[in-house]
Amino acid sequence: MPRPNYNGFKRTLHPLLCRFLSAKKNPPPSFHPPRGTHDTFHATNRKRRHLERLLQTTIEKHGVSEIKTPTFDHRSLFDRALGATTDVVSKEMYSLDHTDPPLVLRPEGTASVARALLHQGTATQPHLWPCKVWYSGSFYRRERPQKGRYRQFDQFGVELVGCGTWMDDVECIMMGHDVLQRLGLAPYVELRLNSLGDQESRTRYKETLTEWLRPYMDELSDTSQTRIRNGDVLRVLDSKRPEDRQVMARDDRPLMSHSWNAASKDHFEKVVGMLREVGVMVDGGEEVEGEGEGGKGLLASNPMTMVHDEALVRGLDYYCHTAFEFVVKESGGKQNKKNKKKKKSVLGRQQGTVLAGGRYDQLYSVLSGGKHDVPAVGWALGMDRIALMLEELEEDTAESLWPLAPVKIAVLPVGDKGAMVCGGGGGGSGGVPAAVLSTALRIGHGLRNCGEGDDWDVLTNNDVGRLKQQMKFANREACEVVVLVGEDELDQGGCVSVKNMATSEQVQVEVGQVVEVVRKMVSRSGGRARW
Ligand code: ATP
Ligand code: MG
């Protein structure tokens, strides 16, 4: 019997099968960004850059300098600083594989700043205090993604280290107020603050609260029950679970302020009193019309509402005395101009905190095994939530909060003769006379480097095509002015065409006059939306 001939199979089917099997083993990557993360593009990035710059300049005016720490750090740092039972440490950190010692993507900034200042020595040398630093960057937590809650998010933070007085708390809160005011967000947020008191007051309150919660243990979430058993009863106040909130909302819940000792009470009252005195804050419920009394013309805006929130505890272990959050007001505080009805904020109740912080006098001691006692206070602002708020505000008021983007000018070589466009669908500059290409380059260079160059973006499209294709490009890029460099014009008298895209006005000018003509055209146009 003749043997079957498999050669045809090998030649055709075999490679296909191999490709199929290898694709199954090694699938191509998904183009989706990982859950809870985002790709961002030019317009968004430009706004974020503006936001960041505004925060930096505002904070540096307070004499605060920048600090940068790695985006990953020792797991043990966060275990110690934040507390092993916190949500962040127990379930939200991203560990890096096979690292010894174990490393994680940083979930927050304060612990890394403390590590850096202990390592560098500023924190350990009181004669170098106060040390005031700001940081900005991405942080990572494995949380359930929602609007304003992501797995990679950006924070801008401030830490006042070696700062142990109640006045430092005031200064720190005023810095938060300052940035929100400069962003135009002050009318839409309120300050909620509380005091966790000193160690003695906190221990007393923990005992009182644990005792009070005993009859309600079964009604609380499993997590809260475990926390109480582990001595973390304060976290129950911070719980977002509805069953916990229901218990904690009972009228007879003991108040933290009733457990404050004299020193804790004094510290809190001085902070609140000074904020009131300066005029940046008024108590919740009071009229906030007009300038604060203490302002006397120095404060540029209305005071913000301040509310003593007895249930406010920060989610991390290291806080004492003053704790505060700047929270979006319930209504979002704004009216939709068109339909005049109050609109709920984009940030839901659970994502309403845009800036949060407090005093943390124990952190440095905990990290240094009791060797260094460094009082400190600070805050972190959620950039993503601020960006969302600004977007919403812009929609509601139809007023742009962002500066105009630079004017776009296109300098485009044009293949006047069909023959200049190479085939193959891609076009190319191969057939265009060098004089056209070099003139376009020189004009582009001249425009970028003239006096107004910083306010102009000068684009080119080297895929040299016919006039129609180049104009399509200029329209797609929303260019305001287009300089067309064509062979014939150049040959006939060293000229190029300059076109105002808004009015369609087009003039022929000598190469040496292009900058001046563009300048005039730009100053006359000014009509195009540039975001
Ligand atoms: P929340 O109660 O909203 O979870 P938090 O107490 O965990 O906040 P902090 O660790 O104090 O937040 O961080 C400071 C600020 O950073 C928050 O007020 C918020 O604006 C922002 N932030 C925190 N976690 C996220 C996140 N997962 N996505 C986006 N922003 C965040
Ligand atoms: Mg959180």
Structural overview:
This protein is an alpha/beta fold and 531 residues long. It has 17 helices and 16 strands. The protein has helices spanning 7-25, 42-60, 75-82, 87-92, 110-120, 166-182, 199-213, 222-229, 234-238, 242-248, 262-278, 363-367, 383-397, 434-448, 467-476, 487-491, 514-525, and strands at 65-66, 72-74, 103-105, 131-140, 152-161, 189-195, 281-283, 304-308, 320-328, 353-359, 376-382, 407-414, 456-460, 481-486, 495-500, 506-510. The strands form three sheets. The protein has a nine-stranded mixed β-sheet. A five-stranded mixed β-sheet has the order 13-12-14-15-16, sandwiched between helices. The protein is globular and about 95 Å long. The relative contact order is 0.10. Mean pLDDT is 86; it is low at 286-297, 332-342, 418-428 and 527-531. Bound molecules: adenosine-5'-triphosphate and magnesium ion (MG). The site of adenosine-5'-triphosphate has 18 residues, from β5, β10, β11 and α13. Adenosine-5'-triphosphate binds next to β5, β10, β11 and α13.
